[in-house]
Amino acid sequence: MPVTPARTTTDAPTLDVPVGAGPGIPDRRPPEASPPRRAGGGALELELHRPDPRTILLSARGEIDAGSAGRLRELLWHRLSSCTGTVVLDLAAITFVDTACLHLLDQCQRRADQHDISFRVVLDERGLLDRLLELADARVRFLTFADLPSALR
Predict the structure, then answer these.
(1) Contact present, 133 and 142 (Cβ < 8 Å)
(2) What is the pTM of this model?
(3) Structural element, H or E, at residue 52
(4) β-strand 143-145 against 118-122: which pairing, if any?
(5) pLDDT tens, 25-72?
(6) What percent of the chain has pLDDT above 70?
(7) Using CA atoms, how far apart are residues 139 and 130, in angstroms rounded to an integer?
(8) 117 in helix, strand or coil?
(9) Which end of the chain is more exposed for a tag (fewer CB within 10 A), N or C?
(10) Are 63 and 42 in contact (CB under 8 A)?
(11) What does the alpha-carbon distance between residue 22 and residue 108 come to, in Å, rounded to a whole number?
């Protein structure tokens, strides 16, 4: 029976799945190959923009958790030392956030401070990050904005 690779996602390892499995043949993939998704969630999508020569804008859409925070950090890290003005992290479209995001924000703020860069965070529309900052008593550690136009001023 020919074997083809299964779909690759950021949540599961790639597995070989037999092609042509007919009715009555059970799916041979282990349960951990397809973990349940959180409602409204999904992979993290990132977009990088340069609205003006002194400003870098990174927009995120989806989930920020321990699995996706590393990708976001990779994009931010270099920019937080090479930018000459402002780095804006737009989190308005996130659908899930956990403490990995808070840890990432702490790292980014320290790096921005070391390089004299203004690091600004646009809060999500659902209030997820705002609640996390409130619970961690961390709201005063970051320059946060309710919307992107305010953060870009």
Answers:
(1) yes
(2) 0.73
(3) strand 45-52
(4) parallel
(5) 444 444 444 344 444 446 899 999 999 999 999 999 999 999 999 999
(6) 73
(7) 8
(8) coil
(9) N
(10) yes
(11) 51
Give the three-state DSSP class for 142. Answer: coil
Q: Are 37 and 73 in contact (CB under 8 A)?
A: no
Whether the Cβ atoms of residue 88 and residue 117 lie closer than 8 Å to each other: no
The separation between CA 72 and the C-alpha centre of its own chain, rounded to angstroms, equals 5
How many angstroms separate the CA atoms of 43 and 8, rounded? 12
**Residue holding tokens 């009555």?**
24
Task: Answer whether 124's CB lies under 8 Å from 92's CB.
Answer: yes
> Strands 45-52, 16-18: parallel, antiparallel or unpaired by DSSP?
unpaired
Interval 104-129: pLDDT, tens: 999 999 999 999 999 999 999 999 99
Q: Choose among 58, 110, 115: nearest CA to 89.
A: 58
